[in-house]
Amino acid sequence: MPDDSVDPAVTVADRERHASDPARELALDCVTAGIEAAHPERVVADALSLGDERLAVTGVDGATTTRDLDAYDRVLVVGTGNAAGHFAAAVERLLGGRIDDGAVVTDDPVETERVSVLPGDHPTPSEAGVESARRVRALAADAGADDLVLGLLTGGGSALLAAPAADVGLDDLRETTEALLASGATIAEVNAVRKHLSAVKGGGLARAIAPADALGLAVSDVTGDDPAVIASGPLSPDPTTHADALGVVDRDEIDAPAAVTDRLERGAAGAVAETPKPGDPAFDGVAVSVVANARTALDAAREVAAARGYEPLVLSSRVRGEAREAAKTHAAVAEECRAVGDPVEPPAVVLSAGEVTVTLGDDPGRGGPNGEFALSAAVELADSGAAGDGVVVASVDTDGIDGATDAAGALVDDRLVGDGSERPLSRDATVRALDAHDAYPALDGAGALLRTGPTGTNVNDLRVSVIPAGESRSEGTK
């Protein structure tokens, strides 16, 4: 059984400085509670159980899937993602010697006894990831008809499990991935392309595992928790086609290498085999259960807010679109709360999750979607009637890595941006930074970046707006 004493903790660098008042401290506590709740140690303890050699897995939808381990000759573990190492370690603690072999690919390694933790890179694939993916696929293909394969899938798995198709090179894959990520395409669109350039994504791993049974355990980092999108769906039927992937490349004007466009065009013409679709025999013995998602983090953050006497409100777990624009809506909600007590009366905490994106130009600066969200929110708060009321906004990527930076995101308040000498950032300079997608230097100079290091999980973005108590403006405050 899992060790109930294990209590994964997230450490925010310079926490004392960031938590300089109660609202800022609460924002930090909501963020860290959300991340910790989605850590595989907690997830395995909450969602998995073992009794009489029956493994039971309860998903976020409340459905329970069971497997009789005594019915199998071997139990193998494969996996990929930012949290795959931590996931494997937690599953090992539960199953112990019942695991016969295993291999997972991650960029956040941990010590394990039975499952090999192999290196990979994120957000763009590497040679190390390709070799690791080959080892994972070889282990999967070694599974026999009387074996059970546990597939541990977490955010970041698409880049980490890099197994290019036969006619696509690693450089082709890397160049295409970088262009897709810079284009502002949704994760579903990005993964539709990656699936059709891979030997394992889009159900390819399930095809390798067959005829063995497979039980996928997914920590979701995608809006809507579609198993076909999480880690590019290595254990799930792929509803997209080569033509769909080609459409993404064309629509977003991706300057893809010739090998990529040639493969997609040949696939669209029927000259390259499609990824396995629903009804394919490869999925006869496969089940995938989502065991943690953005709601896992939101629920934990909501509990912290309520325990402190704040009224929590979850806007959505599916916020998406351009980071800068999404931040304007969140700031407007905070302003409405302060002005008229609607949709929730202060003291309140407004929460959201999902995945915002940034469409980069030809010469972008440095930063990530969460930093850009926070900086945009700071401008909106400064421009609004709520400026000076102590409203705080924190936005983080729960894996601790916002874009390609060393920060998880940022924590800002309505006193960060303005034209007075007491404000750390001038409004004009901040708007220029946003226009150049150069949020990182501005936030770093203002001491607003949140740094956690790798957190051991990934359920995408988590955003917290804290609106302190006070009379509403309609009741006569300034």
CATH superfamily membership of the largest domain: MOFRL domain
Class computed from helices, strands and strand pairing:
alpha/beta
Instruction: Return the CATH class of the largest domain.
Output: Alpha Beta
What percent of residues adopt helix (DSSP H or I)?
25-40%
CATH topology value of the largest domain: glycerate kinase, domain 1
Keywords: Pyruvate
Region (Disordered): 1-20
Domain MOFRL: 349-461
Organism: Halorubrum coriense DSM 10284
Describe this structure in words.
With 478 residues, the chain is of the alpha/beta class. It folds into two domains: 15-36 and 294-472, MOFRL domain (glycerate kinase, domain 1); 40-163 and 198-240 and 275-292, Glycerate kinase, MOFRL-like N-terminal domain (Rossmann fold, 3-Layer(aba) Sandwich). Helices cover 36% and strands 20% of the residues. It has 16 helices and 15 strands. A six-stranded parallel sheet has the order 6-5-4-7-8-9. This is Hydroxypyruvate reductase. Keywords: Pyruvate.
